[in-house]
Amino acid sequence: MPRRLRDHPLLRPLLLAARPLARAVRAVARPVRRRLWRLSPAALARTARWAAGIARQVRRRRRETRLAVAVDVLPLWEPLTGIGWYLFKLLEGLAERDDLALRLYGLALVRAPGIPEPPVPLPAGPALEHVVYEVPDDLALGQRWLVPIVRRLEPFLVVADRNRVVFAPNYILPPPFRLTRAPQVATVHDLSVKRVPWAVRPDTRVALERRLARAIDGARRVITDSHTVGAELVELAGVDPGKIRVVHLGPGQLAADGGGPAAAPPGEVPAPFVLCVGTLEPRKNVPGLLAAWRLLRDRDGAAPHLVLVGRYGWGIEAIQREVEAAEAEGWLTHYGYLPPERLLGLYRHAAFVALASFYEGFGFPAVEAMHLGTPLLLADIPVLREVAGDAALYAPPDDPAAWADAAARLLAERGLAAELAARGRRRAALFTWERAAAETAAVLAEAAVR
User: Fold this and answer.
1) How far does the chain reach from its first CA to its final CA, in angstroms?
2) Where are the domains of the chain?
3) What does the pLDDT average to over 36-61?
C-alpha cells in the first residue's frame, strides 16, 4: 500500500486496529500450511512406504524357520550390574548360534528423539535381532503423534512377530509382552523377597510380592542361577521341581580367560589390599565387613587396605556414613562403577576377595576371583558354598570377630592362600558363559515343545 494511503488520517486507525487480526490469521495459517504439507501426496506416499516397511519386517519374522524367541532386554537400558551383565554375557554367548532367532525387545519398539538408547551397544550376531522401528519426522503424522501411537501398539507388534518362546531374564515380563500366549521361560535369580525381605528395596518388594508368583506359575520353565535358589523356589514358592532348570553362570563382566595379561596394578591403592565387589545395599553386609576390619586394625594396627567397588544402592544412609568415616581414616577406598579393565587390575592384585553377604543368588565376585586365581574369603551361606566349594575360606556373615580371625589367617598363611587360589582356578572351569549359553538354549528349546 502506498505510504500516502497508510498515513491517511481516516485509514491509519483502521490499519492499526487490523494488525492484531492479521497476526492472528498468520499464526493460524502457519500450522495449517504445515499440516497441509504433511497431507501432501508426497508425504502420504512416504507414510505408506514406512507402514509397508514395518509390515515387511513382521512378515519376514513370521516366516522364520529357526526357533524364534522374544527376549526382554529392558535390563540393558540401566547401568549394568548383576542382572544386566547376566543378560549381556548370555546374549554374547548365544549370538552365533544357527538354531535360534532371538528377537530383542527393549525400552521401546520405536527409535526417535526423546527415547533413550542403551548405555552400551547391544550384543550383535547372526542369532540376534534388535526389534525397533525408525519413525521419521517427514510423514503425514509427525513424530509427536506417531511415536505414542506405535508405543500403544507395541503389545500387538510383539504378538505379530509370532515368537514361539518368550524369555524373561529378569523375573517378570514388562507390559509390551502382556498379550503374548507363547510359552514362557523366566529366570529367577534369587528369592530375597522371601528369604530376606528386609533387605529388598520396598518398591521392588511390593512389585515382586504382587507379580512374582503369577509370573512363575505362568512360566513353562524356570531357570535359576544355583541349586540353592532352586530349592528355595520349591520350599518357599511351591514351584513344581519338574520345571526348574539350574544354569550356573560365567564370570560376571570379565572375559572367561580373565581378560588377558594387561591389567596393571592400581597405583592409587596401597598394597596389600583386600577387594569387595558389589552394590552397596543392606544384604551385602558392608557394615559387618567394616566392623571386622576395625577389629583387625585394633589387634595389630596393620590390617590391609580395604577396597569397595560398587554403586550405592538403596537404604544406604548408615552404610554411607561408615564408608565415608573409614575413607577419612585412610584405610578404605570406595569406587563406584569401574570399567572391566580397571576392575580386572584390582582382582589380579588383591590379597584376597571378600564377600560378606547375608544372602546371594549366585555370587559373581566369587566366580570372577576364581577365574583370576585370587583367594576368597566368603560368607558361610549355602549358595556361596555351592559356587566356591573348597576354593574359599568361610566365616559367618553375622560374626565380625570370626571374619577378623579368618582374614588374619588368610593374610598370615601364604600356603593356604596359594592353595585356595589353585583350587579356585580348577573350579572356575565349571562356570563359563559358553556353558551357560548352551544350557539356556537347551531350556528354550525344551519350552517350545508342547
Assistant:
1) 82
2) 67-246, 273-430
3) 85
Phi, psi of 264 (to 5 degrees): -90, 155
Q: What is the pLDDT of residue 28?
A: 47
Does the pLDDT value for residue 30 go beyond 50?
A: yes
Angle at 377 between CA 374 and CA 379, to 5 degrees: 140
Q: Who contacts 91 (Cβ-Cβ below 8 Å, separation ≥6)?
A: 71, 73, 102, 104, 122, 123, 128
Distance (Å, whole) CA 122 – CA 71: 12
Other CB atoms within 10 Å distance of the CB of residue 307: 21
Report the pLDDT value the prediction gives residue 29, as an integer from 0 to 100.
47
pTM of the prediction? 0.86
CATH 3.40.50.720 for domain 67-246, yes or no, is no
3-state secondary structure of 353: strand
Identify the helix (H) or strand (E) that includes residue 276. Answer: strand 273-277
> Cell digits for 316?
544406604
CB 284 within 8 A of CB 356: yes
H helices of 244-339, where?
A: 286-300, 317-329
CB atoms within 10 A of CB 440: 24
Q: Which backbone phi and psi does 26 adopt, to 5 degrees?
A: -65, -40
Angle at 450 between CA 97 and CA 131, to 5 degrees: 45
Set of cell numbers at residue 405:
580371625
Q: Strand, coil or helix: what is 168? A: strand
Q: What is the pLDDT of residues 226-274, one digit of tens each?
A: 999 999 999 998 999 999 999 999 998 876 555 555 565 666 788 899 9
Same fold across 67-246 and 273-430 = yes
Class at the top of the CATH hierarchy for domain 273-430: alpha beta
Give the residue, 48 or 261, on which the prediction is more confident.
Answer: 48
Q: Which residues pair with 101 in a beta bridge?
A: 68
Q: Are strands 305-309 and 332-335 parallel, antiparallel or unpaired?
A: parallel
Asked whether the beta carbons of 107 and 74 are under 8 A apart, the reply is yes
CA 119 to chain centre: 11
Which has the higher per-residue pLDDT, 418 or 142? Answer: 418
Neighbours of 323 (CB within 10 A): 21
* Cβ-Cβ contacts under 8 Å for 186 (sequence gap 6 or more): 168, 171, 172, 173, 215, 216, 219, 221, 222, 223
Give the residues across from 244 on adjacent strands.
Answer: 222
Name the phi and psi angles at 87, rounded to 5.
-65, -45
pLDDT reported for residue 316: 81
* 105-136 pLDDT per residue, tens: 999 999 988 899 999 899 999 999 999 999 88
pLDDT at 392: 97
